[in-house]
Amino acid sequence: MQCLRLTPLLVLVLVASLGAAFPHEGAPRKGCSLFKYKQVIFHEMKAAEKMQKEFRNIRRLDRNCNTRLLDRKWTSAHLSVPDRVLLVEAELNFTITMLQRPARPGFARTRQRPLAFLAQAREDLQGCVAPSHQPSAELGQWLQNLRVATETATQDNISCLEDYAIRHVFEVLGDLNCAARQEQC
């Protein structure tokens, strides 16, 4: 009698394990935890806004900056779910790198909360896209532009990249939210 009760349970376990072994295309991989980013927390948005304001108060942008290379004519809503995750991962890596640069004490304190939030989001993204996933042409070109901009950064233009990252932090948060929803944004 006990054997009959365990049979449905064993079948359920087998089906679940097979489903995990063969992930569905477009769905985040097992271990991907983006649910909490479906709605970016109000306090995190306020901390990012405060950081931007503090940054504008201490830094006047050099008009010789050319960060148009990183501007996009498309939105993350037009990308597949795996592409959205790749985009957010690249944006987070770039933004975190720029926020970790040496700064005045006031800005260093102000950026700590947004930096911690973005670092946690980056950690949560680990394992969300299969390593074999190839980005779309649009995303691939943008990722290439980002790589070129960061690899060729000099002391003269690094402040331009830092400014770009901080000005676009809300875009990064929006893209994170879009990736978490796994549907049209």
TrEMBL record:
Origin superkingdom: Eukaryota
Would the keyword Ribosomal protein be found if you checked this record's keyword annotation?
no
Tell me any Pfam family this protein matches. IL28A
Keyword annotations from UniProtKB, A to Z: Antiviral defense, Cytokine, Secreted, Signal
- Give me any GO biological process, just one: positive regulation of immune response
Where does this polypeptide localize?
Answer: Secreted
For this record, an example GO cellular component is: extracellular space
Q: Give the signal peptide, or none.
A: 1-21
Q: What are this entry's molecular-function GO terms?
A: cytokine activity
Q: Which family does it belong to?
A: Belongs to the lambda interferon family.
Q: What is this protein called?
A: IFNL3 protein
Give the organism the record lists.
Scytalopus superciliaris
